[in-house]
Design brief:
- The chain has helices at 7-16, 40-54, 62-82, 101-112, 115-118, 122-133; strands spanning 2-4, 20-21, 25-26, 33-35, 96-99, 143-146.
- The protein is an alpha+beta fold and 148 residues long.
- The strands form three sheets. The chain has a two-stranded antiparallel sheet with strand order 1-4.
- A hairpin with a 3-residue loop joins β2 (20-21) and β3 (25-26).
Length: 148
Amino acid sequence: MKYLENLCLENISRELNGYEIGGGLKLFGRIEVYSTKKSGEEKKYSKMLENKLITGTDLPDELGKKRFRKLLIDLIQTLNAAQVYHDFSQLSPDAFIEMTVNSSIQNINSSLAEITIHTPDFIHRMWREINESLSNQLPNCEVVLLLV
């Protein structure tokens, strides 16, 4: 997994970081893009994760299981690349749920709504930059939420 530098997303992340929302809470995080093309070592790691996940998915059909396992493996490896001081390989499939793109956008917009009081166009700019960083394929993305 390779981090893909994106100046626009870095700027959006800077705007988010330290932003104070209700109750004295502050936002900390970043929006980043990673390639899911795997190196030789990452391919070996994928096989190890796949063997671990083979028994952990209760999906009705084999194709669904394979697709979901690949999605989880990509997500776990991306999380490990983004958060080098954490090891996400011990997560089970139960730690993730699939969501639609629209419902995840609505949840994020709701969580960030307070920002629009001071910066009305922030959410629109954020989604435009995210969509552009994904070659305008945001509507076709698969979304998985990490529950932990």
